[in-house]
Amino acid sequence: MPRRAPRNVLFDKLRTxxxxxxxxxxxxxxxxxxxLLSPVTRATAAEAAATSNDYCGGQCSDILPPGExxxxxxxxxxLNQAFGTQPAHAEDQLGPYAGLATGYRGLTDAKINTFFxxxxxxxxxxxxxxxxKPAGRGDVTIVRDKKTGVPHITGTTxxxxxxxxxxxxxxxxxxxxxxxxxxxxxQLTGFAGGAAANQGLEQQFYRDAPYTEADLQAQIDNAxxxxxxxxQQALTDADAYLAGINSxxxxxxxxxxxxxxxxxxxxxxxxxxxxxxxxxxxxxLVALASVIxxxxxxxxxxxxxxxxxxxxxxxxxxVEQGTRVWESFRMRNDAEAxxxxxxxxxxxxxxxxxxxxxxxxxxxxxxxxxxxxxxxxGSAATVSAKSASDAAARTSLGSARRGMSNxxxxxxxxxxxxxxxxxFGPQTGYFAPQLLLLQEIQGPGISARGASFAGxxxxxxxxxGQDYSWSATTSGQDIIDSYAVxxxxxxxxxxxxxxxxxxxxxxxxxxWKPTVADGTAEGSYTMRVWRTKYGPVRYRATxxxxxxxxxxxxxxxxxxxxxxxxxxxxxxxxxxxxxKDFQSAAQHINYTFNWFYADSQHTAYYxxxxxxxxxxxxxxxxxxxxxxxxxWRNWDPATNTADYTPPSAHPKSVDQDYYISWNNxxxxxxxTASWGDGSVHxxxxxxxxxxxxxxxxxxxxxxxxxAMADAALADLRAEDVLPELLKVIGSSxxxxxxxxAAVSRLQAWVTAGAxxxxxxxxxxxxxxxxxxxILDAWWPLLVKAEFEPGLGSDLYTAFTDNLPVDEAPSAGHxxxxxxxxxxxxxxxxxYVDKDxxxxxxxxxxxxxxxxxxxxxxxxxxxxxLIGTLKEAAGKTAAQVYPGDDxxxxxxxxxxxxxAQRPLGGVKHGRISWQNRPSFQQVVEYTSHR
Length: 929
Known about the structure:
The protein is built from 26 helices and 32 strands. By secondary structure, the chain is an alpha+beta fold.
């Protein structure tokens, strides 16, 4: 029997008006959905006492908005759209999550779980909402708690435990899992509809991972074959997990309580129940993993864009000076960058070679992007459709790919209790339902609670064990290279070790018809990728007059399943008993992540990823010639394996005084793929606050949560750059009344803390609203006026292609465009900071090669700043915040607000902006095994 019934949403302030008309359209993925029948709750008097293997002493907490329940029926969706009614547990974690933004200042240890869930193992007997034996099995029980509906899975056999994990995952996220297994195969439009955003999403991922079914199976076989008993156990676990998913599919189909999305997209008939929901198979897990790995764990790329900006710099300044200018803006190893390992230990990786070899820079004007989509018909063939899908491909889930997570970890030496304290979590975007799900798994060889990606939840991927917790942030070191393969015979043959070799053509033909969920008219197209031994072709160009194709090769390509072993280890209490074991487990994860650990005695950090050992002299920043001399060391193209840097070369640490990470630079001499890791980074917002706490000593959970929450409201530009800008303006009296008024408002905001925060909870009005509006309008104007005259328009434009100027909360960025929460990861704040400090005559380490603002003259720079400030101050709120599908023009709070973008039929209201992880833990263990 299905287990949930609708309930009224608890937080009316979170709702927005809904209308039935047009409710099946969304602004992001356009796969809105529904359910069939309204299920009823099943609760029993079953008890699930807190387990004796929990060493956190009630001091572990977590949160994952909007809620655990990601499935809905048609009746529930209609109620949601018409009246704002929510299915049980669909958004009951959204209110507490949102409330921290205005509640953190009055926080105490006793109040932490007002804003977080109790993450203790087990469920107290008086908090049991339901108990079930999936498929009638006697070896596994799923208990759900009353407060959040999180599944607590307990098995007496390993198979039963994993069966229960799969069954619970399908109960909570079946439709979402189905969507993303189709995304991973480049088949979303045929499954969910031909909306432009659906087209863009499948195009983005198929370009990066154009796998055949044989490729997907080979990755499973490889992971099992190369990991001994653990590999075989992973396969057995996956089989049991899939059996659980498929058992729920069968039960919900026969019982007619399957997710109603299948009805609205034409896969099931609501009257006759005709149609099928395809069973999941093991290759689906690899398809899902390829999406998650591509989004969050594949650092690097951009070599062709780098080449274009280098060419522009050399064209303006000459080769030597142009290279110097380029390197200064690239900031590979800036001395002023915030570091996670800050004890001075050097971990050299991907630095600039003294004598670069094998570079394959394109001839000027010769670069064209490889066409992906062909043979468009029907609605796919219009000019507007092509433009829309192209734009969606560039932006769909875009900055989620960059990484947005953070971590604050303090050694017990500096805490009030003498035990480590951690506040950490990943930022996976804001969706309804969320890409992650919460669960507790207890069984032979598994003991963990936390978050896992839907469809990959046979293990907890981020969470806690019996006496330790772990989390991750995206690291972004470069594991992707671009090779220039010389063409021969025609455009689809290339030279490989002197032999003219045919490219491998793979394609996906997709067609769609209008459905209730997506009314996009009938259409079709073919996605076609040409693969070489050096990876898929991404660009065409000439190099020295010879035709080449630029390919993209990443070390995790054809290895999407390999990380399963590391997660298996992290869930195994028999394996992880301390920080060294944790680091060993993290070494088995081939995606690029920063991993953090805390128990009652120790803290630790490890940077994971298969970092290829490049040939001597190869510069990872640029395309290189596809010749054996420049290939990865001992690279085997058949398996895409190579030599990788050893664990000793990866940034790592145990018991440093504190760790922070907000996708900043990992360690000295460790080059990340992102631009702008310099003197101002959002990691500084954490580092400044945590360093201050550590210096004072006696750090508590409350204080560390407050440090995170305060940083989550800070405007990085206002906190770390605006004071310098005001110093330049204030170098002489400001006589212009408009400029003086603007300066006064900005200074008052800085003095108040430079936060973007409501006047009071639920006011939907910012304190210092005018100052925020002025800075939002001023920043892009001042950056252009400061740098374009000196760089020239061509080079300035090329550099903005490498690194956008701004990433304010209201900007169109993030996993789904605007309203994405994560902000201030990418922008020109370091460039402005270093330049302005140089103009002021202050000390600057690793400064830019020249002073740009006003040509280096303080007076002229002041004139530039005042001129652009006056222009910004004159812009109305409607001009700065022009409105979108969510907000009316001029609504500043709404422009910043976070929206849970619907991937299903249930919608949730917007919440006030915060710049924080979407899943988050607060932990302080009281004892150890």
